[in-house]
Specification:
The protein has 453 residues and is of the alpha/beta class. It is built from 14 helices and 16 strands. The mean pLDDT is 97.
């Protein structure tokens, strides 16, 4: 089979996600034959470094032998059983280990099957908690500007990226939106911490006015991924946790993309309070939890919230939310193997070395006349292209300069799928320093090409 063979079949039947399908006339999908480590290989023998971890999920490389073996063993035992009225050892063991490694106080685990679904669980559970405890007036949510939490209707509603949300506005609940602490907009000479502290005043004002009717505040800790990889200081999380307690409002930490080592710690919430960490009322996890092998997500919460649903059946306080593949044994096995890999590799410390190499490899781009900022949080590094560096005036989005970088990368063995005009590295943790250097070189070439046309 050739690339052309499979593309012809694909375009006859498939509708691809996050894609204007007319684009495929000029840029057809690339058929993948196999993957190994950071590499993806197509049917024509071309190889690509997966610099974006296949949408941020693949953290230990493609065809990882340890994870492969764990899933194969599980496959010979039981592939699936419903988790309503039944249980199985992988689901129990994974829940035990998640409770152990997440912030103290997150003692109950509710499984779902994708990131959006975990957010839906947290939103519904928060609303339902307040209803069960006699606070039916709490029906609203607060989010951050430029946030993204998924594309099912509840998750979409509490996001704030117009590209995904605007079309569906008539269908969505209306959150209250606080300005993002995004440090891209800080004034010259102002530190990330100073900016994030100052911006928190708007969240404080919203909570003061609307706390009595608010179920929860939902945030992506430290890093707004779909919002062009914008970043902020951990002090914002510390201030937010304290304010949510003061105004009797839940805090939902969407760590779907930021969890499992992406931000420099196992979970981004650990970095608040000078490293002492905070405990949200809900923590949503997905993506890296199975290292990109199988769909799975988790909403962790506290015993206090769990207890508000624990009652006689006749009182109708149970959380009647379900997914057919909740707690799937194969996905649980993949997640358990993923946690084993973290321990065996001392991956958090290893990532610090890789993150430093990413910073050094791209440092020269900070002086590029069409790069507004090179920013980094842990194993995520973003390069933002602009038309004018001094004023930070962006290119016209219709020019699709980032797409030009992507297309150049494909000719140089690099998969660099951009977010608009933001080029970013979010690679698997098995990447080598030399491969990081190659990505930096290709990104620099691609940016030069994109701004010269």
């Amino acid at each position: 089979m050739t690339n052309q063979d499979l593309v012809a079949r694909d375009l006859n039947v498939l509708w691809h996600p996050c894609t204007q399908m007319k684009d495929t006339r000029q840029l057809p999908p690339i058929p993948m034959r196999r993957g190994e480590g950071v590499w993806l290989e197509d049917f024509d023998g071309n190889r690509y470094i997966d610099a974006v971890s296949s949408w941020w999920v693949n953290i230990f490389g493609h065809a990882n032998p340890t994870i492969n073996a764990r899933i194969k063993r599980q496959l010979d035992t039981i592939e699936h059983v419903m988790l309503a009225g039944f249980t199985h050892e992988p689901a129990v063991e994974l829940a035990e280990r998640l409770v152990e490694i997440t912030p103290a106080g997150l003692d109950k685990v509710f499984y779902a099957d994708n990131g959006s679904a975990a957010v839906e669980v947290a939103l519904k559970m928060s609303f339902h908690y307040w209803r069960n405890t006699g606070h039916g007036e709490k029906t609203r949510f607060i989010n951050l500007g430029n946030s993204y939490h998924g594309e099912t209707l509840g998750a979409l509603a509490v996001g704030d990226v117009a590209l995904y949300k605007k079309t569906y506005e008539p269908l969505l609940l209306k959150p209250l939106t606080a300005r993002s602490p995004d440090c891209f907009y800080r004034e010259p000479g102002v530190s990330w911490e100073e900016h994030s502290r100052a911006v928190f005043a708007e969240m404080e004002a919203l909570l003061a006015e609307h706390g009595h009717e608010t179920c929860a505040v939902i945030v992506e800790p430290l890093l707004q991924c779909a919002g062009h990889m914008r970043m902020y200081h951990p002090v914002y999380l510390e201030l937010l946790r304290e304010a949510c307690d003061r105004y009797n409002v839940h805090l939902i930490a969407d760590e779907i993309a930021t969890g499992f080592g992406r931000t420099g710690t196992l979970f981004a919430c650990e970095q608040a309070g000078d490293g002492a960490g905070i405990t949200p009322d809900f923590m949503c996890l997905s993506k890296g939890i199975t290292a990109g092998y199988l769909p799975m997500s988790v909403a962790l919460t506290t015993n206090d919230i769990y207890d508000a649903f624990y009652d006689e059946y006749e009182n109708l306080t149970a959380f009647l939310h379900s997914h057919s593949y909740t707690g799937n044994p194969l996905a649980c096995a993949a997640a358990l193997a993923t946690l084993d890999e973290f321990a065996a590799r001392d991956q958090i410390n290893a990532n610090r070395v890789l993150a430093e190499r990413m910073a050094r490899a791209t440092a020269g781009l900070a002086d590029h006349p069409h790069v507004a900022e090179v920013r980094q949080t842990g194993m995520v590094l973003a390069i933002e292209m602009v038309k004018d560096k001094a004023s930070r005036t962006p290119f016209d989005w219709r020019e699709r300069r980032g797409l030009s970088v992507y297309r150049h990368g494909l000719t140089r063995q690099a998969l660099l799928r951009p977010l608009g005009d933001t080029i970013y590295f979010m690679p698997p943790y098995v990447i080598t320093p030399e491969q990081i250097d190659h990505l930096a070189e290709v990104a620099a070439e691609g940016i030069d090409h994109a701004v010269s046309t």
